[in-house]
TrEMBL record:
Membrane topology: Multi-pass membrane protein
Stretches assigned to the Fatty acid hydroxylase domain: 66-197
Domain of life assignment: Bacteria
Protein location: Endoplasmic reticulum membrane
Protein name: Sterol desaturase family protein
Cofactor: Zn(2+)
Amino acid sequence: MSEAKLAPAGSGGARAAGVLQAIARMSSTRTNYWVGHATDFLVSFALLGASFWLDHSRPLLSALVFLLGLFIFSFIEYAFHRWLFHGALRLFERGHTVHHEQPLGYDSLPFFFPPAVVVLLAAALALALPAATALLLSGAIALGYALYGFSHLVIHRRGRFNHPLVRKWAAVHHVHHHHPDKNYGVTSPLWDFLLGTWYVSKSKVR
């Protein structure tokens, strides 16, 4: 018989759990937080640049596809915030609860996760659309996500804003931290208006 020791049953599951725990620890670090913001923008710029390199002969159509991507992301932002982060999936809800308790914390998705998802999205779209269009649409969605993350960062870390419109925009999200069932949109209030989750103070209702 070979003298090599057999791995105990269930060791694969233990290793997987250890990897997940390591990723979870990394996700709460300052390095992951800032690297994540940088890679979100880099991936979006790479996809948009590749799209332009493949085909820049139809600027009007490209502009419409780009705006469509941002519009699609606005709903993704709302849907994830409302039905995942404040929904029934405990994994997402638990992490988002930490953010509500510590808005200046560094808890975030692993820096490699959003870029991997958006690259897979681009590949999937390329099965049904011309490559340039698929890259442009996924790049616009990725840029929407990057801007969402940056907006969230600025709202919580900038503190006070001088311009009244920017102040009001930031206040909309601060209201969400006091009324978690309202104002799910961070970059845009569009879907809150359309789906009835826009916060209206009691004084205005009367």
